[in-house]
SIR2 family protein
Amino acid sequence: MRQEVFIKKFSKTIQEGNAAVFAGAGTSVDAGFVNWKKLVAPFATEIGLDIEKETDLIGLTQYYINYKSGNRGPVNQEIISQFSSPGAETEVMNLLTRLPITTYWTTNYDKVIENGLIKNNRRGDIKRKIDDLAVSRPDSDAVVYKMHGDVDSPDEAVISKDDYERYSDKNSLFVTALRGDLVSKTFLFVGFSFEDPNLESILGKVKILLGERTREHYCIQKQVLEQDYDDQDDYLYDKIKQDLKIRDLMRYGIDTVLVDDYSEIPKLISKIEEEYFKNTIFISGSISDYNENWSEEKVKQFCYNLSRSLVSKNYKIISGFGLGVGSSVINGALDEIYNTKYRHVSEHLGLFPFPQHDDGEKSLVERWTENREQMISEAGVCIFIFGNKLDNGEVVIANGMLEEFQIAKERGKIIIPIGSTGFAAKEIFDAMKESGDYSYLNDYWEILETEEDVIKVVNTINEIIEGVR
């Protein structure tokens, strides 16, 4: 599947609340953790086997436990030694846990997913063993299913042939939960090997139950490239095998997205985030001084119509309660929400009022900057309107709006300046037009600079946003 198609489809799934992630060992490598092969390499050496010749690592671990007369203590200790790094994190999981995805599955023993959730101010409900499935953590933002166990309980980790053979009986509720999620959610498999017998069995049973009606899922894999091989025969063999595996995964409804290098995966996830946030629009503006072109009543009408129109098209509005602007933006959004959106306010309106006092640790200016960064981080599109304030009785440009523009520019947001409203918005308009960097506005510069008809400006904004989606 082409990357651009995957980005649009999976971001839409996130917006609909139906996305899930299945993270494999590859998502933890950047945190310094070993993959499975390196984990069991010491076992192979001790029992006289060459790890480079072994492909059945589950069987190899079982041989080692047999060699130790059934004592898995050394295996438990190796799990603790290799995966006990409390603060470990990776870029990929930090990005994936920043997205509003509520279901994460993993075969990893480490705490990289949990740490990603904490870093992103989210509470995880962690399911490490069967007993955890019976209780729910209050106010959790996401559920993490650790179907192969956790470093804190190495004796229950799934690693040997015995563990796999008993899995369906011992962990039947995990199997049932995963089957249910595979039916009801769209999964992104990342850093994962599809050689895991548990997953292969579960995917097979889901296929039997649903036949050809399996849900669409995605996996990201590194493409087999000739430049990575010294031997042409090895390259051709691995290329053929990858093509066959991709076709086989399609039997389970899993489309493969190929990248040339593992370093591309964070960039790909970032593009999903960008696409997702295009549905969220930050309206930046303030006004204390009106004029004959933009009277107080007309400003209120414009802000009201703009926000109501955007919500009617299922966008989410973010507002910081800008003086002279915020109330009308909020009222327009709320009227549309209460009339047509089943009163689901949080889905269509996000409010970030500015703090009015310092907290003893940070100055008020620092807290305002943090508030601006938070608002803009959650938006994909930023609209700039008006932008003046009174300073000692004098009308001046709203420097806070200019700061918001700089943040939006640095973060690569879609920026729409309504120059015809004047003040900071006009300064932002002039800077953008002069830069020549905003091709999506090429057909709109004139109308953005001169048009003052409320309906025409609102329609133009909607047209620009539709064009960049």
